[in-house]
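Hi everyone, sorry if this is the wrong subforum. Our group has a chain we'd like a structural model of before ordering constructs, and none of us has done structure prediction before. Sequence below.
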Amino acid sequence: MIKNSNNKRLGWVITGSGHFFEECLDIMSELGEFDLFVSKAAEEVIRMYRKKNAQFPKDTRIFKDTTASSAPVGFFYKNIYHTLVVAPATSNTIAKFVAGISDNLATNIFAQAGKCKVPCIVLACDTEPEHDTKAPSKMVKVYPRKIDLENTKKLKSFELTTVVSSVEDLKKVLKKI
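Answer:
Right subforum, don't worry. Here is the predicted structure as tokens:
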């Protein structure tokens, strides 16, 4: 799906959101080689949604949040990424992005991508005043708080950052890279 003439890779961060989670895994299964960064919260969501055996391309490298310094951020200094995708992104992750907090793998990766001028695509989960989402056992209605919606709006103003609000929009943006 994504080819890059510079032999650079796509980086993808998953956070602890169940919203759009399975759809993002489906998209990833169709990609060429990429690096996947899995936050601690995402590991929990994987277990809740029983997605232990997601089918990723053979050359996918997976990095988990196991170091205090988020050691995998060092890859961004080696200029090996053409784009970073953060999908799905929780309201907590979005709030930390907006506040400049880098205290876990997901937030450190986003910060370093920005510092290394790597374009970012963020699939924000809280973009509408209400929406349906899939919980582990059923569909539920959620009502994002005003602060969640404001943070998503603020993130849209970040340099080299594209914020999308649907899986369809994410697919469209990915086709352009």
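For your construct planning: The chain is about 30% helix and 25% strand. The domain at 9-175 is CATH 3.40.50.1950 (Rossmann fold).
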